[in-house]
Amino acid sequence: MRKTLNILASSFRLTMQELRVNKLRTSLSLIGISFGIFCIIGVLATVNSLEMNIQNQIKSLGTNTIYIDKWEYAGGPDYPWWKFVNRPEPKFKEVAFIKQRSQLVSNVAFEIDSRVNVEYDSYALQNVTMYGVSEEENDIQPITMAYGRFISENEFSSGSPVVIIGYSNAENLFENASQAIGKEVKVKGHNATIIGVIKRMGTSMIGWDYDQCLIVSYRFARQLINEDNSGPKIMVKGKDNVSSAELADELEGVMRSIRKLSPTQEDNFSLNQISSFSDRVSSLFSNINLGGWAIGILSLVVGAFGIANIMFVTVKERTAMIGIKKALGAKKRSILSEFLLEAAIICIMGGLIGLLLVFLLTIILTNVFNFPVFISAGILSLAISICILIGILAGIIPAYIASRLDPVVAIRSK
User: Which residue range(s) make up the domain with 339?
Assistant: First the structure.
């Protein structure tokens, strides 16, 4: 153990000496390693953070949930919109039928949405997205309240004129979001009382923008907007022990029976599974990660050749010293380990510089673009492992040459 520590200390000392003596040569090699690590770790950290953010937002749409709609959510350049545009819209009455006929369903909710103006005294918010939801909406997509409460069962049943407002909307209408509770606002000419303010959620890439929305009960929303022109959809959550595939299979049969479709008729509805969105996102980000690896590996190869060049020159400069060490009894593996460790230390130093640049990148993205980026422990360990591997690969040939030198010939060299 002591011998290994001595070799490590000697390698570190010689590396620092190499940096002091040959600043330009060593710095250029460090830049190659630093840039390679920056590309790989920067892309991995940014993409992983982005994927986690999107996956969390997908989960907020409801785990093990299927959206029944006339439209398919897959999209794409060949999207056959003409096939879906004439389909019938989902109806609120179908919620009760689904609950009666399905054995695998845990919760069913109905949702409509529209753009409305919200007024309070002399202030007004224009084009606010208003969601009209049914009773079990909060069981499928739980909403955290900053102030106040969610809509009660009685308020749902009676269509009471109460609203829940997004945090940003509350701040825009009132001096402080907490002051919104109990205030009366006007929505499309109807007075409504604010009973809750949604906790600030930040910018959303998919799903609802909770900070900018307005939530009311479905029955109250029907007094304000036309249901057929408000993108109605049914959300179905399966029981805990039921997979999305099983739930989709059952819902297909249930919906066909509700719509009274014959065996020869095509489905006139779409079953959009949240789990399939998550799988597509994972596949997309895997391809992006491959691109980051490709760029980073090219940079690391260039840096590895630079490290190898440094080690070849270092072996030549220390030939006499190597000869003396071998004459005094140093074994081949000791000389080999010393040079391999030196190459690895140079790569680790370059990697640390690259990680510092990635850390600066995370601060910029987090503060400037309001997008949280983090470097996980797994990514950090990957960066150090890559540096050690590159150092060993780059230094193996020079180190092997050094370990095989004849001590007499080496001592006589200049």
Answer: 2-57+279-412
Q: What is the CA radius of gyration of the chain?
A: 32
Phi-psi map region of 241: left, alpha, beta (phi>0 left; psi -120 to 50 alpha): alpha
Whether 79 is in a domain gets the answer no
Domain boundary among 268, 289, 309: 268
Residues 134, 136, 141, CA angle at the centre, nearest 5°? 105
Q: What are phi and psi of 127, to 5 degrees?
A: 55, 45
Tokens of 388: 């050690």
> Which sign does the torsion angle of CA 201, 203, 209, 212 carry?
positive
Locate 401 and state its tokens. Answer: 């040459």
Residue at 288: amino acid letter: I
Same domain, 104 and 40: no
Residue 65 inside a domain? The answer is: no
- What digits encode the pLDDT tens for the residues 3-62? 666 656 665 676 666 666 666 766 776 777 787 778 777 777 877 777 777 766 666 665
Identify which of 72, 66, 69 has the alpha carbon closest to the alpha carbon of residue 105.
66
pTM: 0.66
Where a domain ends, among 219, 237, 268? 268
Say if residue 233 is in the same domain as residue 335.
no
* Residue closest to 284 by CA, chosen among 357, 362, 206, 367: 206
Measured on CA atoms in the order 207, 211, 212, 213, is the torsion positive or negative?
Answer: positive
Rounded to whole angstroms, how far apart are CA atoms 39 and 402?
Answer: 33
Indicate whether 64 belongs to any domain: no
